[in-house]
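2024-03-11 09:14:02 DEBUG pipeline.ingest accepted 1 chain
2024-03-11 09:14:02 DEBUG pipeline.ingest length=111
2024-03-11 09:14:03 DEBUG pipeline.predict start
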Amino acid sequence: MPYKIKNYLHAIAPLSKSTLDLEDVLIISFLEHGWHQGLKIQVNTIIDGIPNLSPSTIHRRLKRFKNDSILSYKINKLNQRVRFVEKGEKYQDCLKQIESLYDCCSNLQKL
């Protein structure tokens, strides 16, 4: 098996025992990538950017992230129908949870 895919599969394996799932991680990784590029991301940007998840799934996940204070919305001052997705007060906790899954997997590989 190619090295990169093997590492990827090992990295996501702990998701099966987590409250997060692959759909959550896809959304977070999409957001992180966009924010790293300095983009302001709207809900529709996420829907268009992750075509393998249905719009209803994305809306449901974003609503849960918002209710859990992982993400928040900022209303555009010029057009109040436009909402930008931003990091919530518990966003870093979510990243730590994802990182702990990766750390757990890395420790298993060393055994």
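2024-03-11 09:14:41 DEBUG pipeline.report The two ends are 20 Å apart (CA to CA).
2024-03-11 09:14:41 DEBUG pipeline.predict end
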